[in-house]
Amino acid sequence: MSKFDFAPMPDNEGFFGNYGGQIIPPELKQVMDEIDRAYEEIRQTEEFQNELMQLFQDYVGRPSPIYHAKRLSDKLGGAQIYLKREDLNHTGAHKINHCLGEALLAKFMGKTKVIAETGAGQHGVALATACALVGIPCEIHMGQVDIEKEHPNVTKMKILGCKLVPVTRGTATLKDAVDSAFEEYLKDPVNYIYAIGSVVGPHPFPKMVRDFQSIIGREARQQFQDKHNTLPDYITACVGGGSNAMGLFTAFLEDDSVNIVGIEPSGKGLETSEHSATLTLGKPGEIHGMKCYVLETEDGEPMPVHSIASGLDYPGVGPQHSYLKDLGRVEYQSVTDEECLNAFMTLSQVEGIIPALESSHAVAWAMRAAQEMDKDTTILVNLSGRGDKDADYVADKLDL
Q1: CATH of region 61-93+215-397, choose from 3.40.640.10, 3.40.1280.10, 3.30.930.10, 3.40.50.1100
Q2: Among this protein's residues, is 117 annotated catalytic?
Q3: CATH 3.40.50.1100 in the chain, residues?
Q4: CA 384: distance to chain centroid?
Q5: Active-site hit among 95, 156, 175, 207
């Protein structure tokens, strides 16, 4: 029995404590409720569960392994660092886990088009892949800044047959891509489905994406116990919207012996305005159809945010993360761009694993924390994606 008294996650109205819900027009509420009903219906069927599990196994390559980063651990001289290798999934990240689920749901509901936003491009590639697999047209909105930064993923999306819509408004990054995609979705919400790329947005998406991603934690918990006859002392993952983190954390929430740490981007420093540390410096507010922690300007508008990792520069965060912060079950810390780059290069050169810049935030925290711990302590990092997409950008930035 956990010492934490969890409220329903979520309740019938889609709230995790005080966060979540459906802050949307009444006509859109009907559509979202229909998606929720369809999801609850399909997820109970043996046919859907079998199809999804078969795709996880034969298409994605699950279960993803846990790897002991022994050389990295030895170099740091402290805790033992383990990596949950989501970077080895088909399409190179954790995003394929929920994209397959969303594409199958869209097919079940008879939708004619799947619409989504993407930041780093991992969600876009994974959704384009899933839509190609089930035969549904796909449209991805992506900020112009991210298009230029994540060119390899842009090319993959086009090859996979999706329609890519460049977004040049505002900061031309993830928040603006979300706005643009949502506007397109509102043109015909009956026939289109908006496949949200994280545990954010109006109910039921924070629940739905979490459920599809929770395979990460279920696997990791069993794998670690099988190998070590115990659970890890710490688990950690990067947090932007928070899907990969929620995927890992969910299976361990009631294990009081496991310390859970989410890592946000502090960008160029928490003392500057160029960060995306929503849970660290934000406050409860509303964004994109949900209540959650938000980084806001004095006028109450979402703040322009920054991270070297395109998938983390979002001024909101998943409502369940907001609830778990208030409850004290998860501790949220942050990592700078500089620390992220150092972790990216260190893991690459010490272990031969090139991580995504998003995942490098969690690696950076593990490297920092491990040095203060003894050698019997274990840290499990969700290595949520691989760094192919970031290699050219990092090479230019570091003049390699």
Answers
A1: 3.40.50.1100
A2: yes
A3: 16-55+94-210, 61-93+215-397
A4: 8
A5: 95
